[in-house]
Amino acid sequence: MALFQFGQSVTTKDLQEKLNGDIQLVDVRSPEEYRGGHIKQAKNVPLYRITSYKGNKQDPVYVICQSGIRSKQAAKELKELGYQVINVRGGMNQWLGQRVGGK
Fold first, then answer.
1. More reliable by pLDDT, 3 or 94
2. Which of 79, 86, 88, 98 has the greatest CB tally within 10 Å of its CB?
3. CA 65, CA 101: separation in Å to the nearest integer?
């Protein structure tokens, strides 16, 4: 594990398998990006508002963005607030599952 990595991460394929359950999934992209197509279970909390997120700290929070950069930052901030955070590597760029919204 590299020194700059601080937490857990999953692939988009791993995430797709988790969606069968009841999970906390936070999409930290802008509202415009979110409306352009998102995962049905995802709640949009843009990165600049991530510290206002009020989720269950007992259950893991999966964080996704477009490529994985913003979700890493959001994961770091949520972890500091006491959440169990799992970053989705590759973000929506790697997501092959169904999307809601967009064209």
1. 94
2. 88
3. 16
Residues 6 or more apart in contact with residue 97 via CB below 8 angstroms:
12, 16, 19, 39
How far is the first Cα of the chain from the last one, in angstroms, to the nearest whole number?
39
User: Most distant CA pair in the chain: distance in Å?
Assistant: 40
Tokens 């760029």 locate to: 93
Q: Which helix or strand (DSSP H or E) is residue 43 part of?
A: strand 42-44
Strands 61-64 and 8-10: unpaired
How far from the centroid of its chain's Cα atoms is residue 21's Cα?
A: 16
Residue 6 near residue 69 (C-beta atoms within 8 A): no
- Return mean pLDDT, the chain: 92
Structural domains of the chain ordered from first start: 8-94 (3.40.250.10)
